[in-house]
Design brief:
Its cofactor is pyridoxal 5'-phosphate. Its EC number is 2.6.1.21. Pfam families: Aminotran_4. It contains eight helices and 15 strands. 38% of the residues are buried. Strands 7, 8, 9, 10, 11, 12, 13, 14 and 15 form a nine-stranded mixed sheet that branches. Strands 2-1-6-5-3-4 form a six-stranded antiparallel sheet. The protein is of the alpha+beta class. Bound molecules: pyridoxal-5'-phosphate. The site of pyridoxal-5'-phosphate (PLP) has 15 residues, from helix 6 and strand 13.
Length: 282
């Protein structure tokens, strides 16, 4: 039996039904988070739920009935019920069920909350050997700072990566690199880490924030300035990061090797620091 959480209850996944009038289903009108479980413990849950509350606020979704602490408890309980030792919990909230009509529904409409968990190992092979990425034009809207259910731009980009045997699509607006379809992107040059500033054009990853903290501890300059495709291609090292892929080396972009095509030293330093950080939190 596998449990999911829906409408304030833990039920078997076969009982997890949503309405055809759910605004998440009709409009992608909702938000989500994905939280990691390491060794049976919930990782950076407070940061994720604070971001969920921020996303809710930015789209005018009322989450007053919920709290960071309450949601963290739900996450722990779901992972425990499903015996997740290493894996993750996905949580989404939609603006609720109402007849399809673009304006917000009546204020009494309850948000629909759902969550599922899954078990899997850390991506050890890829972390050690690196992955390939392609580049694609970033066609998304201008509020990429909101972790919204509207993911069509991201889905189309990732599909193109998959078609090209690449792990990720690195997106760019014109010449400016923004982020990956489901990750943040970093170019390392002459011992410094460059990444797009956390503004409306990217999602400010929790992993990105951890990497920033670790880089500062290691005295590696962490520069939040946008960079070009050309800079990316000529970087010494490239990294992508997210809750599921952690500090992931990119050793090839399109047909071009990055640096000598091997995982670089700064990447390895950050990976070590990230491993220690996970241990210190669990
Ligand atoms: C979730 C996400 C990330 C990574 O965020 P984490 O909090 O590190 O998992 C990066 N970019 C996009 C577009 C995302 O949706």
């Amino acid at each position: 039996m596998s449990y999911i959480y829906i409408n304030d209850e833990f039920v078997d996944e076969s009982e997890g039904k949503v309405s055809y009038s759910d605004r998440g289903y009709n409009f992608g009108d909702g938000i989500y988070e994905y939280i990691r479980i390491y060794d049976g413990k919930v990782f950076t849950s407070k940061e994720h739920y604070e971001r969920l509350f921020r996303s809710a606020k930015e789209i005018g979704l009322n989450l007053d009935a919920y709290s960071v602490e309450g949601l963290t408890e739900v996450t722990k309980e779901l992972a425990a019920k499903n015996n997740v030792v290493n894996g993750g919990v996905y949580i989404q909230v939609t603006r609720g069920v109402a007849p399809r009509n673009h304006p917000f529904p009546d204020a009494s409409t309850k948000p629909v909350f759902s969550a599922f968990s899954k078990s899997y190992d850390r991506p050890y092979d890829e972390l050690e050997n690196g992955v390939k990425a392609i580049t694609v034009e970033d066609i998304r809207w201008l509020r990429c700072d909101i972790k919204s259910l509207n993911l069509l731009g991201n889905v189309l980009a990732k599909e193109k990566a998959t078609q090209n045997d690449a792990a990720e699509a690195i997106m760019h607006r014109g010449e400016t690199v923004t982020e990956g379809s489901s990750s943040n992107v970093y170019a390392i040059k002459d011992g410094k880490i460059y990444t797009h500033p956390a503004n409306n054009l990217i999602l400010n990853g929790i992993t990105r924030r951890v990497i920033k903290e670790l880089a500062e501890d290691l005295n590696i300059p962490f520069i939040e300035e946008s960079f070009t495709l050309d800079f990316l291609n000529n970087a010494d090292e490239v990294i992508i990061s997210s809750t599921s892929i952690e500090v992931m080396p990119v050793v090839q972009v399109n047909d071009q090797k990055i640096g000598d095509g091997k995982v670089g030293q700064i990447t390895k330093q950050l990976q070590n620091a990230f491993n220690n950080y996970i241990e210190s939190k669990s």
